[in-house]
Each structure stands twice: as structure tokens, then as C-alpha cells.
Write a structure and sequence with these properties.
With 389 residues, the protein is an all-alpha fold. Helices cover 71% and strands 0% of the residues. The chain has 19 helices and no strands. α6 (88-101) crosses α10 (173-188) and α9 (147-161) packs across α18 (346-366). The protein is globular and about 60 Å long. The two termini are 41 Å apart.
Length: 389
């Protein structure tokens, strides 16, 4: 189904697409809850009534934007299949280039699916699966992989080729695409059934007031389930058996709660860094231990994913700068090890690092396979593969 057929309007298709493109950019940059229909109209240079002639409300606009991303993904795939002639290297190169130019095609749904209905999400998944089946047909025609392994690899590849959207590559576009292609080719050469168990770091009991800890735990779970914006302080209080106003005795605002959740996740990650450097036998082993500790952290508690997924809600808050700095310092540990291992520049290393982190970040965000007992081991295996370990 094309975007123009979904619109139910006789307005020019290019105008509708322009509105969708503006909204997608705003949703990705600022977060869906923080963007209003007035913001979108202003960015597109139209009036609010004109915007409402195309879309009943913001959620309808989001849904159309996500489905348009699926359409774009199909367009990129059709072109790559035709131009590659069945050659997997040519196909991956084409897809990495196309997705770098059309980042909304692979990214918007993974960041905003929480705000779609179950029925809408099912349609998106069905459309995406159909496209990824075409990827598998090209990539694994000569390999003896189980169906579940092929599915896991192509879904993961979608995260890798879309990873340029989650950071600013300090490389010329053509070079960034080449580095991304290297990471993607490492991925599709893997055999998921060969994954080994995580080397789980020791559990960390962070100090804190019991009631504050209860509030943070409850808030993190609510934010993970429904997103930061829709959750109220009253709901957070009710989850721990107190009133909303009582929550303010412990935290002055909902934003402060989110910041504290981010600080907790940062502290856990830093423990993983200390453990990796203290026990790793060499740089490759240290980086591998960082992979395992990251996966263990993001899959055991919702803090890390919540902090990462809702950072845009803190725009303008002084505490947001602190969390960004913590995240950058943490990622720099990975890139430093990569530059040492492969004698490459920091910007090159960052492409592979962000591709690897996107694998588990995306899977947890959309809850793809998280219920499987081997989920953590599979994620770590795929991440190590992308990093060349």
C-alpha cells in the first residue's frame, strides 16, 4: 500500500510526502511526545488547518510516516536487488548507500513504535518482514542457515545499516558508507547458532534510599512500557503505593526521575568498564567484556534503554548535558580499544561501535526476541562479530 493510497485525499502526493518527511525528521530529532502538529506545520511552511486536511491528528501522521518508511525500504531493496544481480557484496553496498540517504526508512519505527496501536505495529512488522525476506534470499542463497538464523541476521542487518542515524559520523559520506559496509559484511558472515554464553559481570548493588530506589524502579518500568511522555507522576506514585504529591518529596520533577535513572545506568556501565580493564587479557578481550557487560546491563533492567530512548525529553534541562557526557565517555572506551586493535582512526572506529550498539539497542526497544533465554548471548555474539572480534 503506498502512502498516497493511504491518505484518502486528492491533495498532491508530493505535498503529503513533504509533510511526512518534515514530521519524521522532527520526531527523530526531538522525540514524538515533544513535537506538536503546530511544530510540524511551521517546519513545513504550511498552516495548521492545511496539515489537518491531510492527517486527522499527530498519531495518524506518525502512522503514515512509519508506513512510508516501509515503502521506502521496499524501494531501496528493489533497486539493490536489480543492480546487484544476486551478488551479496553488491547488494550490501547498495543498501548501505541507500539507507544512509534515506535514514527514516529504517529508523523511525524503531524509535516511535511505542506510540502506535498493536494493529498498526503488526502491519509495520508484516511489511518489514516481507522486505527482509528478499534480503535473506540474496544474502544466504549459498549458505546453509536455519530459517531462524536468517531472520535474526536480516533484522540485525536492518539495525546496522540504519545506525548512521543515531550518531554524527565525522567522516565524508562515501567513507562512512564504506565503513558501514564492512560492518554489515562481517555481520552476514556470522552463524547465530554458534553464539556462546555471556561472561556475566558481577551484579552491582547501587547504594540509595529504599523509597527512592522503589520510585526509580517503578518509573523505569513504566517509561519502558509506555514511553516517558504519557506517564504521569501520579501513576509512578501509585506503582509504589504512594500518592503523586508524595513522589515530590523524593524528586522535584518527573524529569529529575529520568535523569536519576540515567545516572544509575551510567554507574552500572562504569562498573563494567572497570571490570573489563581489570580482568581482560588484552584489548580484544577487554572489548569483548565490554560487549558482554553492556548486553547484561540493558537486558537485566530497563534503566539503560529508558535513558537512551527518552533523552530528547530532557532537551534544555541542565541534567541532560551530564548524561550526554557520560554516554560519550562510555562510547569512547569502545572506540579507543577499536583504534588500538585495528590501527584505524577514531571516526572509523565509531562507525563499527555504533553499528554494534544499535543491534541490541534496537532489539530491546522493539522487544524482538527478548523473551528467549539465549537472547543476551545472541546479541553479544552478533555485536562482537560486527566489531571484528
Amino acid at each position: 500500500m503506498t502512502a498516497s493510497k493511504r491518505s484518502g485525499t486528492s491533495r498532491p502526493a508530493n505535498r503529503k510526502r513533504q509533510l511526512i518527511d518534515h514530521s519524521a525528521q522532527l520526531f527523530l530529532r526531538h522525540g514524538y511526545p515533544q513535537v506538536s502538529m503546530a511544530d510540524i506545520a511551521r517546519a513545513a511552511g504550511v498552516t495548521a488547518p492545511s496539515l489537518y486536511r491531510h492527517f486527522a491528528d499527530k498519531q495518524a501522521l506518525l502512522y503514515d510516516a512509519v508506513l512510508t518508511g516501509v515503502d521506502d525500504l521496499q524501494t531501496c531493496t528493489t533497486s539493490a536487488v536489480a543492480s546487484s544481480g544476486g551478488d551479496s557484496h553488491a547488494f550490501i553496498t547498495s543498501m548501505c548507500g541507500s539507507m544512509a540517504r534515506r535514514q527514516n526508512a529504517s529508523t523511525l519505527w524503531r524509535w516511535t513504535g511505542t506510540y502506535l496501536t498493536p494493529e498498526q505495529n503488526r502491519e509495520v512488522v508484516q511489511g518489514t518482514r516481507a522486505v527482509l525476506r528478499q534480503w535473506a534470499d540474496v544474502l544466504f542463497a549459498e549458505r546453509d542457515l536455519a530459517d531462524w538464523e536468517q531472520r535474526q541476521l536480516v533484522w540485525t542487518l536492518l539495525s546496522v545499516v540504519g545506525s548512521l542515524s543515531v550518531h554524527r559520523a565525522r567522516l565524508p559520506s562515501a567513507q562512512a558508507v564504506r565503513e558501514l559496509t564492512v560492518a554489515a559484511e562481517r555481520l552476514v558472515a556470522l552463524t547465530p547458532s554458534a553464539a556462546t554464553p555471556l561472561r556475566v559481570p558481577p551484579d552491582v548493588e547501587l547504594p540509595g534510599d529504599d523509597r527512592r530506589t522503589e520510585i526509580l524502579d517503578a518509573a523505569a518500568q513504566l517509561f519502558a512500557d509506555r514511553g516517558y511522555g504519557p506517564v504521569t507522576v501520579d501513576e509512578i506514585g501509585a506503582a509504589v503505593g504512594i500518592t503523586g504529591p508524595s513522589v515530590y518529596r523524593h524528586f522535584p520533577s518527573k524529569a529529575t526521575i529520568l535523569i536519576e535513572i540515567g545516572r544509575r545506568s551510567g554507574a552500572r556501565l562504569e562498573v563494567g568498564v572497570v571490570t573489563a580493564y581489570a580482568t581482560g587479557t588484552d584489548d580484544a578481550d577487554r572489548l569483548s567484556l565490554l560487549v558482554d557487560s553492556y548486553v547484561a546491563t540493558i537486558t537485566s533492567i530497563p534503566d539503560l534503554s529508558v535513558s537512551f530512548n527518552n533523552a530528547s525529553a530532557l532537551a534544555g534541562d541542565p541534567g541532560a548535558r551530564e548524561l550526554v557526557d557520560v554516554q560519550r565517555r562510555y562510547v569512547s572506551r569502545w572506540t579507543t580499544l577499536m583504534t588500538s586493535l585495528y590501527d584505524i582512526g577514531e571516526a572509523q572506529a565509531a562507525i563499527a561501535v555504533h553499528a554494534a550498539l544499535s543491534i541490541v539497542n534496537d532489539a530491546v526497544r522493539v522487544r524482538r526476541g527478548v523473551e528467549r533465554p539465549d537472547f543476551g548471548a545472541q546479541m553479544a555474539y552478533l555485536m562482537r562479530g560486527v566489531l571484528g572480534l
